[in-house]
Amino acid sequence: MPQTIRLTVAQAIARWLAAQFIQIEGAEVRICGGGFGIFGHGNVPCLGEALYPLRDALPLYRGQNEQSMGFAAAAYAKYHLRRRFMFCTASAGPGTANLLTAAALAHANRLPMLMLCGDTFLTRLPDPVLQQLEHFGNPTLGVNDAFKAVSRYWDRITHPAQILQSLPAALATMLDPADCGPAFIGLPQDLQGWAWDYPVDFFARRLHRIRRQSPDALEIAEAAALLGQARRPLIIAGGGVQYSGAVEALTTFAEVHGIPVVETIAGRANLLATHPLNIGPLGVTGSDSANAVAKEADVILAVGTRLQDFTTGSWTVFAPDARLIGLNVGRHDAAKHQSLAVVGDARLGLEVLSEALLDHSAPAEWVTKAQAHRKTWDAYVAANVAHGNRPNSYAQAIGVVNALAHPRDRIVTAAGGLPAEVTANWRTLGIGTVDVEFGFSCMGYEIAGGWGARIAQSEAEPDRDTVVLVGDGSYLLMNSDIYSSVLTQKKLIVLVLDNGGFAVINKLQGNTGQPGFNNLIADCPTVPDPFAVDFEAHARAMGALAETVAGPAELGAAFQRAKAAPKTSVIVMQVDPHEGWTTQGHAWWEIGTPQVSASDRVREKHAEVEAGRAAQRAGL
């Protein structure tokens, strides 16, 4: 008979998580770096009791909001290139419901995150319980079922023995390169405390690895034949390049075969800004250089990208007859828009594709032309980030930070206007150091994601800084992890750029011919007396150091003070909501505009938007 140990379900889950390891750069570390938790009646009596004895092995960070806990967990996984994850635990009801947005973010970005959430009682004896949503015709349906749409793995445990299958299956999903994403496990409140005789072997220390799938030889041969015929080849480098550990392989491939490289938002730091084959960021928030080269390319090798509309300009940035090769570990992404699909690991795929190409190299004049485009773009960025006698802008603030940051400092931003401005204007100083959350374009990620990234960074690069760039709109939406960072001594540098509301959406509103309405605080008809928030005082109230600067001329010294400070520092600077936006580098982006309107201006802008559709690769 196998040896057993009697444990509650919650105790068994915690003990099993603590026993799972992975090898990273020669060191064996726990795959689960710990968790973020807010306890309530649905998880504190049992799961809380189970986690307490393992508080050193699985450090538990107490969040201020379940949604921000999920953002922090996503940023932690992104920093560790999906090789490690954090769990989030929330109580039954609204605590769990608050995790939905974060789960969607992790799902869109293909990031591992484990959610251990309370659920209603299996016995149903006390029904309806506090915070239960009753569905009269289906008593099994509840809030947790909503996570089926935003999870890669979903389960509700109804018997203690089920975790013997469910936990390994959830971990396998989170470590799978193609299916990676959030895993949700619902834990009924009574079942968490039920005991069972578990096999001792289930809790034995186990070392895992992430699978590297070799691409099919015939797919490689076909891709090599197509790429070998190209006169104007181009590589799109996505975030999957970093997750595969393929940065060196990508760089070598581009250099050996003389192919220009453009980056997606997620792949923004695959190459240093100074690399001669780095032609710039591609797409709607990209660069004139990358978009010009993409428009002329005849064969495009898309590596580790899901080809989101901001990358493809809603499929207008490529020539109508350009051929695509999709090298991706996920079949779904590799085959998009009738790409010649090469399904496999990015690093292995680039290596064998390079071998198949032998010494083939793209025409030198093509590379020279691409580099000339990049040189022109660099000159534009230099002028764009310079400050002088003009209104404060995002670009100026980015330029100041860029000039003073350490190459290994991590830059975090999301949503609003900052992703576009950072993508266009930030000159990459270190590989993998830029986290622009734009997979789900989620406001509120910035500070919470910065906290999660800093937790991860403090494990690997404790002497470096995590720098968060956030607008006033996102700050007001979710700022409590400034307090979290101070409490846990995970220092952040937070730059709050205040433009008086949702300025980038106000800009879009204006660009579609409409008057300012309900985006800038000053344009809200229900706000009779607009006033500015004292962000400095607010940050100080959460224990951070804080100061306000008048403009970029003062920002540099403030940033240096923040770098020298021992704890989280918040710097506030007002920027103009109308002037100073990056005006070049934008590709067409499909948006819905009114076909009928009483406004001549709206009708005019509708016609302009629709005119851009002529370049769209519809149906391909």
Description:
The chain contains 23 helices and 23 strands. It folds into 3 domains: 205 residues, Thiamin diphosphate (ThDP)-binding fold, Pyr/PP domains (Rossmann fold); 161 residues, TPP-binding domain (Rossmann fold, 3-Layer(aba) Sandwich), CATH 3.40.50; 189 residues, Rossmann fold (3-Layer(aba) Sandwich). The strands form 5 sheets. A 6-stranded parallel β-sheet has the order 5-4-6-7-9-8, sandwiched between helices. Strands 14-13-12-15-16-17 form a 6-stranded parallel β-sheet, with helices on both faces. With 620 residues, it is α/β, with parallel strands linked by helices. Its EC number is 3.7.1.22.
- The helix-and-strand class reads alpha/beta
Show unreliable segments. none
The profile of the biggest β sheet is: 6 strands, parallel
Distance from first to last alpha carbon: 60 Å
CATH architecture of the largest domain: 3-Layer(aba) Sandwich
What form results from the Cα inertia axes? Answer: globular
Number of separate strands: 23
The CATH class label of the largest domain is Alpha Beta
Number of self-contained structural domains: 3
- Portion in helices: 25-40%
Radius of gyration: 25 Å
In CATH terms, the superfamily of the largest domain is Thiamin diphosphate (ThDP)-binding fold, Pyr/PP domains
Q: What's the mean pLDDT score?
A: 96
Number of DSSP helical runs: 23
**What is the topology, as strand order, of the major beta sheet?**
5-4-6-7-9-8
Report the β-strand fraction as a percent range.
15-25%
CATH topology of the largest domain: Rossmann fold
GO biological process, one term: inositol catabolic process
Domain Thiamine pyrophosphate enzyme central: 220-352
Domain Thiamine pyrophosphate enzyme TPP-binding: 437-572
Family: Belongs to the TPP enzyme family.
